[in-house]
Amino acid sequence: MIHRPPGMGAFQFVVLATLRAAQLMKGCRPRVERGVHKSTIIAQVEVAEGKVQQLLTAPVQTSDLAGPGHVGAILEPAVAVADGV
């Protein structure tokens, strides 16, 4: 079982590991020894070991993207970041 880092909520861990797994599946190099594990496990290990971190950005209003008069939700993008990716 992979344990999340202290101070990181379960939801944040899952979201960050999911984003990192998507990066790995697109061809990014793993930050830990790959072995025979799938991208999802490698991503969880990277997050647990602090090899990837979350880049915090300001919320984006979808109304800003769609033009005037459009009512939209607030999107808060979370991005998995690893040096040199």
How would you characterize the overall build of this protein?
It is globular, with a radius of gyration of 15 Å. The strands form two sheets. A two-stranded antiparallel sheet has the order 1-4. Strands 2-3 form a two-stranded antiparallel sheet. Helix 1 crosses helix 2. It is of the alpha+beta class. It has one domain (10-81). The protein has three helices and four strands; from the N terminus they run H-H-E-E-H-E-E.
Adjacency order of strands in the biggest sheet:
1-4
- Domain count: the total is 1
How far apart lie the N and C ends? Answer: 26 Å
Order of helices and strands: HHEEHEE
Oligomer: single chain
The total count of helices amounts to 3
The chain-level structural class is alpha+beta
Mean pLDDT: 78
User: Helical amount among residues, as a percent range?
Assistant: 25-40%
Please outline the major beta sheet.
2 strands, antiparallel
Total beta strand runs: 4
- Given as residue ranges, the uncertain stretches (5+ residues, pLDDT < 50) are 70-78
SS strand fraction: 5-15%
The rough form would be described as globular
For the structure shown, list the relevant keywords:
alpha+beta; 4 strands; two-stranded antiparallel ribbon; two-stranded antiparallel sheet; 85 residues; 14% strand
Write a compact overview of the structure shown.
The chain contains three helices and four strands, in the order ααββαββ.
